[in-house]
Amino acid sequence: MPQLVAELDGLGIHFVHRRGTGPAPYPLVIMHGWPGSGFDMEKITPLLADPGGHGADPADAFDVVVPSPPPPFPDTDSRSGRIARESVRNTRPDCGRS
To answer: How far apart are CA 81 and CA 71, in angstroms?
Structure first.
């Protein structure tokens, strides 16, 4: 899966992105929990992005984005909690959507 970085308030936010293969894929953002990473979604991402390749209807495809926001811990940057929320909104344009 393509791994990208979007800049948000001066911090780099890592995310993975897999474009859907259906006729009109709908954008879907999947957040992982802590402890965890975007790699926790590695098995389901192909199923969501390419349902036709897995025996389902291709019209059900998604453009899947899995951001890895920074953890909101006291010893991290004080912006990290807000950055985590904003990362969902701000990774979409980097994936070719407006």
So the answer is: 7
81 secondary structure, DSSP code = H
- The pair of structure tokens assigned to 51 is 């349902």
For 19, the 3-state DSSP assignment is coil
User: What does each C-alpha distance from 23 to 48, 62, 66, 83 come to in angstroms?
Assistant: 13, 10, 21, 33
The enclosing H or E element of 26 equals strand 26-29
> CA–CA separation, 72 vs 21, rounded Å?
34
The pTM for the full model equals 0.68
Which mean pLDDT values do the consecutive 10-residue runs of the chain (98 residues) have? 76 83 90 73 91 95 84 54 58 51
